[in-house]
Amino acid sequence: MTAGIRALDGIGAAGASRVDEALSEDFAELYRSHYRRVLGLCLRLLGRRAQAEEAAQEVFVKAYRAMDRYDPAQPFAAWILRIASNHCIDLIRRRAREPLGFDDADADVEAAAGPEDGGEAALTGAQDAEAVRAAVDALPERYRLPVVLAYFEEASYDEIAERLGITRNHVGVLLLRARRALRAALMERELESTS
Amino acid sequence: MTCPDELELMMRADGALDPDACATVDDHAAACGRCAARLEALRAEAGALSAALVLEEDVPVPPLDVAGGLPWFGALAVAGVVALLSLVAPAVLGAALPAAAGWFNPFDAWGIAEMAVDGVVFLVRNGDVIMTVLVETALVALFFAFAAWLGLRFRDRRGGPLMLVSLLGIAALLPSPAEALDLRRADEGTVLIPAGETIADTLIAFGETVEVDGDVEGDLIAFARRVSIRGRVGGSIVTGAETVTIAGEVDGTVLGFAETLSVPAVRIGGNLFGFGQSVDTSAAIGQNALVFAERADVGGDVGRDVMGFGESVEIGGVVAGDVTAYANRLSLLAPARVGGNVVANVSSDDNVTVSPSAVVEGEVTTNVREDFDDEHGYGSGEFYLFQLVWFAAKFLTGFALLALVPSLRRVSIDAPAQAFLAGGVGVVTLVAVPGVAVLAALTLVGLPLAAIAVVLWLISLYLAQILVAYIVGARLLRHRDSHYTALLALGLAVVMVAVNLPFVGGLISFLLLICGLGVLALFLWRRLRGEDEPGAAL
Questions:
Q1: Distance CA B8, CA B328 (A)
Q2: pTM
C-alpha cells in the first residue's frame, strides 16, 4: 500500500487538482469506509460542522502522508481516530484563549458518597440520541473532550490522560462530573417535556 | 467493607482500574447487590453514550482533496501558473480592456506601480494636511470599531458598566480635547441642523438623510443615504453617502465618498479628496484636489495641485500648481489656467482637449497608454468582455490565495455585528495604512518602507473583494460540501453583478471592500498573535 501511495507523490506537484481518483485504491477505500467516523469524532470534538468537515479532510491528508508509519497489525480505525482526536485537540488548544483548565489541582470528586442511584437511567432511558448529543455538545470543553475520547473514540483512560496531559484519576474525575452534568441536563429536559 | 465510591465504580465499569483495585471492587460487588446493580447501570450508561454519539445521518463522502495541504513545490507550481498567465494575458487581453479600467488592470503591474509611486509622491508633498484628517478619521473609526468589539465581547455578559467606562476612556483619547462630540442619529428619518443653529463642537450624524443648514464650528462627520450641507463648517468634513452635496463654506478639508459628490461650495480652505462615480466641484479650493471618479469635474480654482483618476477629468478654473490625470480623456475648458505642468496619462493624443482660451504656463505632457481603448458602455460587448477578464483575474488570484493559505477558507461572517466589526476595522485599515505611510515617508529612512506599505496596501485592496466574495459564496452554499473553488466562483459572480448595479453598485463595492479589508486585517492580526482559530467566525 505504501509503495502505491509514494508513487503518487508526484501528483501533488502537478497542481491543485483533486486527486481522489488517482489516490491509491487502497487508501481511497480506507477513506471512504472511515470518513463518517472521523467526521463524527471531529464534529463531537469541535462542535461546528464546517470546521469538522475541514478537520476531517486534514486528518486524512495527514494520514495519507504518514502511511509509512502505519503499522498494519493495528486496526486502521483506531489509528485514524487517534490522528483525528490529536488534530482536533491541537485545534482546540490553539483556539482557546485560556488554557483548557485540565490542570486544576482539585482532582477530588466531591460527594463521593455511597452507591445510591446516581440517575444513570436518564442516559440509558433517553430515547432520543439527538438529545444526548445535544447535551454532550453543550458540555464545557474540559468535560466534552474526555467524554468524546472515552465513549466515541473508545480510547483508554491512560491514552486520554497522556493526550490531555493529566493523570488517569483526573480523567476519571472529569468523566464522572461530565456524566453527572449529562444526567442532570437530560432529566431537566425530561421534566420540561412532561410539564 | 464499605461500598466503593461512584468514581471507583465508574472506572471499574470503564475498565480503567488497576488489576488489584479491580479485583477488590469485583469481590465487593459479588457480595453487594446494590453495587452490582450500580456497576451494571454505569456500564449501560457508557454503552448508551457510545451509541448516541455515533453519527447517524448519512453524510456524503466528499472527494479527498490532497491539494488542501500542497507541499511547497505545489505552491510554487501554482505561483508559476499564475505568473505565466499574467505574462500572457496582457498581450491577449490588453487591447480588449476598456478605457478607464486600464490602470486597474490586475495584469498591468507597471501601471499600478506607477500609480502607487505617484500617489506616494503626492502624499509626501501634501502629507501634513492629509495626515491630520486621516488620523482624526482613523481615530473616530477606531472608536466605533472598538465599541462594536466591546458589544460583541460583552453581548452575553453583564459588561455594561465596564463597556461604558472603556468607551469614556477612549472618548477621552480622541483628538481636539477642547471640543466635545455631538452625536446625532435618526435611522429612518432626517438629522436636521436648521439654519441659524450653531453647533460649537464636532458633529457626528447618521441617518437616512442628513441636512446641515446651520453652522458647525468643529468637524462634521456624516454618513447617510443623502447628505446635504449648506451651512458653514469650521473644521473638516468626512462624509459617505449615496448623494453628497456640500454648498456651504468649509474652512478645513473635505473627504467624501459618494456615488454623486457635488461640491458647489463657495470655498474649501483645505483639500478636497473626493471618491465616487461622479465628483463635481465648482468651489475655490485652498489646497489640493484629489479626485477619484468615473467623471471628475473640477470647475473652481485650486490653490495647489489637482490629481484626477477616472474615465473623464475636466478642469475649468485656475490651478496654481500641476494637473495630473490618469483618465481616458482630460479636458481643460475655457477659463482654465494652470500655473504648473499638465501630465495626462490618457488613451490617445486626441483625448487631451485644451480649449483655445485655456492657458498652461508649464508644459503639457501626454503619455499615451497602450492598453487604453476608445469609448465603452454598459451596452457594448467590451464591457462584458471586461467583466469576464475581471472575473478570470479575480478567480485566479483568489484560487492562488485560498490554495496557499488554506486557513483563509475557514473565515466566515456569521452575524451582523461581525460585519460591522469587519467594516470598522476595514475603514481603519483603509485610512490608517496610507496615514502611517505618509508619516514614515516624511522621514528619509522611512521612504522605502512607506512605498512597500503602500504597495502591500494596494494588493490588500485587490484581495479584499475576492475574500469577501468567497465568504459570500460560502454563506450561500453552506453545508453543501462544495469545493472552495466553487464557493469562490459563486461568490465572485454574485459580487460582480452587485457592484455593477446601477446607483448602488459603487456603494456596495465600497462596503465589500472595507468589509474584506477588515476580515483580512483581523485574520492577519490573529495570525500574528498566534490565535489560529480555524472555522472561526470573526
A1: 83
A2: 0.40
